[in-house]
């Protein structure tokens, strides 16, 4: 168990990190929630996750073009979500996920061009 000190240079940082993790846990979407029960922000985040899941499914099925489109659409949505964030950690999370989607789409583009050259 961590002990939070009320004095010292890191007291404020410790309190903020505890508050942020408590807020993050309270605002985390429940996997069993349907989209109609979520806030607009969570609906958009859920939709981006669905696009990523669809891209993975299409990639496994061998449909690289459709997977690329789905990854790039998810990246666009995640970047829009990041743009509207004031909290750095949330912004970083959205940005990192968008970067991963863009990198995956680049890999698929390379695979597609290699497959077409054969």
H-E order: HHHH
What is the beta-strand fraction? under 5%
Distance between the termini: 58 Å
Structural class: mainly alpha
The number of domains is 2
- Radius of gyration over all CA atoms, rounded: 19 Å
The percent range for helix content is: over 70%
Give the total of beta strands: 0
Contiguous low-pLDDT stretches (5 residues minimum) are: 1-26
Strand count, sense and barrel status of the largest sheet are: none
Mean pLDDT: 79
Count of individual helical segments: 4
Shape: flat
The name of the CATH topology of the largest domain is Methane Monooxygenase Hydroxylase, Chain G, domain 1
CATH class of the largest domain: Mainly Alpha
CATH homolog superfamily of the largest domain = Phosphotransferase system, lactose/cellobiose-type IIA subunit
What is the CATH architecture assignment of the largest domain? Up-down Bundle
Question: Could you characterize the architecture of this molecule?
Answer:
- The structure is a single chain.
- By secondary structure, the protein is mainly α.
- It has two domains: 30 residues; 86 residues, Phosphotransferase system, lactose/cellobiose-type IIA subunit (Methane Monooxygenase Hydroxylase, Chain G, domain 1, Up-down Bundle).
- It is built from four helices and no strands.
- α3 runs antiparallel to α4.
- It is flat.
- The N and C termini lie far apart (58 Å).
- The relative contact order is 0.09.
- The N terminus is likely disordered.
